[in-house]
Each structure stands twice: as C-alpha cells, then as structure tokens.
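Hello forum,

I keep getting stuck at the same step: I have a sequence, I want structure tokens, and every attempt I make locally crashes halfway through. Rather than fight my setup again tonight, could one of you with a working pipeline run this one for me? It's a single chain of 66 residues.
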Amino acid sequence: MKVTKQTLIGDVLDHNVETARFFFEIGMHCLGCPHSRGESIEDACKVHGTNADELVAKINEFLGEA
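Reply #2:
Ran it on my machine without issues. Output:
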C-alpha cells in the first residue's frame, strides 16, 4: 500500500493496524471514532495542526513503500 495525504485513515489502519502508533504520536487519539476513519490524513493533520507530509513519509517508511 502506498499512502498519500488523500488516503483515508481507516484504509491505513485496515491495511496495518500497527500504523495507529504514528497517529497517536501526533495526538490523534480518536482513531476508533467513525468520523476519523473516513477522514483523509491531510484533513486530520489540518485539524490537529501537524504536518501531513511528515506523517505520510513515516507511515510509508514503516510499510516499506518509501
């Protein structure tokens, strides 16, 4: 799976639940909320005041897709 800023959080978690730690690290503790699962990484990062490009890079590196 290649993750982009437009990838839905739920899709990332469904692909590999261990990616949750990257969301938790930047303060996204609402991963079980139905709304968050349907939100793009970019939109969630805007809400949480974090850098979407950095998060995407970490997730892709973890998934071996960097």
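The mean pLDDT is 92. If your local run keeps crashing, start a new thread with the error log.
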